[in-house]
Structures are given as C-alpha cells and as structure tokens.
Amino acid sequence: MSAAPVAGRSLGTVGIATLVAAGLGYPLLIVTARVLSPADAEVFLTFWGLVFGAGSAMAPIEQEVSRQAALADVAGRRTGFGAVQVVAVCAVGVVLLGLVVMLPPVGSRLFGSGGAIAAVAAAGAIGFAFQFGLRGLLMGHHRVKPYSGLVVAEALVRAVLLGGFVLAGLNGLVPLTVAVAAGSFAWLVFAWRGRSLLDLRSGREPWGVIARRMFVLVLSAGLTASVLTGYPAIVKLFKAPTDGDTLSALFLTLTVARLPLLLLSPVQAMAVPAVVRLSADADGRRRLRALLAKGAAVAVGVAAVGAALGALLGPWAVRLIFGSKYSVGSWAVAGLVWSSIVLGAVMLLAAVLVARKQGNAVLLLWALVAALSVLVLWLSPGEITVRAVLGLVVAPTAGLAVGAWLVLRERAGGVVEPSR
C-alpha cells in the first residue's frame, strides 16, 4: 500500500477527532453561561482562557517530541530519553508559572477571592505538559488511532464531568473549573500505549540545550496564545474595580469566535510543505508571492463582510444562545469577528515563515501582535470593553500588514530547499 493513501487516512482520522473535540467545547460554554451568573461566568472564562492559553503555549512539546519520535521510528528504534527531558523541562516551567498565578495579588486579580480556582488552573496547565508529550510520542510513531482517541477523550472527559456536576447540582465555580482541568489528565488512560515506545537508556541530551530550545519555541507559542485563547486572562489583569461585571458577554463571544482558529493547526501543517515546494525555483516563488498577496487581500475582504454580519446578527445570537442576561454591542461583535478572521490569516503567514526557516521573523511577528494588544489595553482611553475590543482589532491588523511584508519581501535569493 502506498504512503499517500495511508497519510490521507491518517490526516482524515486526526481531522475528524479534532472537529469532534472542538465541537464538544461549544456545549460546555453554553451550559456554563446559563448556570452561572455574569460575574461568575467572567471568572470561569478567565480560567478557561488561562488554561487553554497555557495549553496552546505548550503545543511545541508535541511538535518536538513527535519530531524525535518520527526520527526514531524511521530508524526502527524506540524514542530516547530526550523526549522525557522535553516534557520535564516544560513541566518545571509550568509549575513556576502556576506558582505565580497562585500568588494572592495575581490570583485575586484574575479570579477574585478564588484561590482554589488558581490552584485548579495551575494543575490543568501541568496536565497539558504531559498530555502533549504523549500525543507527540504517539503521532511520531504513527499510532494514529490512540492519538485520535486521546484528542477526543480530553474533550469528552470535560463534557461528561461538567454535565454530571450540573445535573447533581454542583454548579459552582470550583466544580465546573475542576471538570475543565480534568480533561488535561485524559493522558493517564492512554499512558500505557506510550510506555512501549520509549527507551529511557538512550537519546539523552544536555539539559541546558533542551531548555534553551524549548524556551524559544514555547515563548513564540505563548505570544500567539496571548491573543488567541489566553486573551481573557490578559484583559482581566487590566480590569479596574469600577468596571463592574462588564466582560462576561464579551468573553463568551470572544471564546466562541476563537474556537474555530484552533482547527487551523492541520492547515498550517499542510501549508508548510506546499510553500517549500513552491519556493524551489524562481517561477514558483513568483506564483507563491502572487498567491499570498491575493490571500491577504481576500482575508481583509472576508473580515469586512464578517464584521458587518457580526454587527447585524451577533448581539441577537449571543442572547439566543447564552441567555438574555448577556448583552454585547454590535460594534464589539464586529470587532471580534474582524479580529478572528485577520488573526487566522496571520497564523497562515507565520506558517509560510516557518517553511522558510525564518524562526526569528515568526517570533518578531507574534511579539508585535502580543505587545500591541497589551499596549492598547493599557494606554487607550475608555472603559475596559472598548479597550479590549480595540486591542483585538489593532494588534492582528498590524500583524497582518507586517506578516504580509515579511513574506512578500522574499526575493529570488531566499531559496528554500525542497523536501525529498
């Protein structure tokens, strides 16, 4: 059997699992919005953004471990201790970050008086480090079925536990956040599938080398996560006591608008080899630049149409789905839709830079987007909702302009070696 059909079926299996997992996230948001008060919903969505932002930041664990595992699989051997080192280094970093979140000044800023919620968030983030390590190990050794099972199980554990807690009347913040964090430990059920793929006696690397490599990768992913999934937590840090409970509806709308962007990872993965092939000769590079220029223009047009539709239908849809206690302005929905579409285009431009091995440019691009969003939140006048939406509009739009410039300035000298 040829490799192409096998790869196609693998991509299809993983794609279906990802769609199912993403689809299970929407009912959770609807249920929690309806059982919690707007004030508690704001805290829950801050927790959600922090946990999944940390998860997004740790995605490089999966990529690095899968790289090591794939090399080992091709060589006909098990993955060495280096994969364990990757997970261990990142887990230590998450523990340190968790301790910061649990500090009273930080935890109270994010979650009010809920010190327990800060601890649950830290635990959920630590679970992600091990989960991504196992996922990378399974994918690198082409164990597609258990990999897909783990992706679905993570979301299913959350849905089942949260639904059970609500039916049992345990619909407070702590039980609901525990249900969400529990999904990060679904890897425990699949751990035995990865143990036979490891050889802990080989493949050891210097700890300093591992730490430096993962720091750069996680930093870049963390900057992306700060405007993708972790933005509610960033906004909450800038909220003043006089702002009241104004962010719950905005956070709900933002979280729903951002969920589809999590499905772009397979598209980014497919874009990289396509860019490599097109960059093999001058004619291909010309066609690639034309394609990228048209794509950026189309993204702006689609964002404008989406923003108009969001302004027209968004406030009504929010009240219909989440309840009448949540009200968001037409201008806010328009800004969030614009932001999500433009941010998707920035993510694809970043994949082009990855294909060209321009890691520093990728880091610069996301640092610009993250810094701009924080600066707008911090320095802009107006109440917190206005500043939050403005930050989401300005930062990705600037990112699209800079990202387009970075990829379109490439000339014939920037040859990317084609894959064999």
From TrEMBL:
Keywords: Cell membrane, Membrane, Transmembrane, Transmembrane helix
Predominant cellular place of this UniProt entry's protein: membrane
Membrane topology: Multi-pass membrane protein
InterPro entries on file: Poly_Biosynth_Transport
Subcellular location, record wording: Cell membrane
Ranges that cross the membrane: 12-31, 43-61, 81-104, 110-134, 173-193, 214-235, 247-276, 296-318, 330-354, 361-380, 386-408
GO cellular component: plasma membrane
PANTHER family recorded: O-ANTIGEN TRANSPORTER-RELATED, PST FAMILY PREDICTED COLANIC ACID TRANSPORTER
Stated name of the protein: O-antigen/teichoic acid export membrane protein
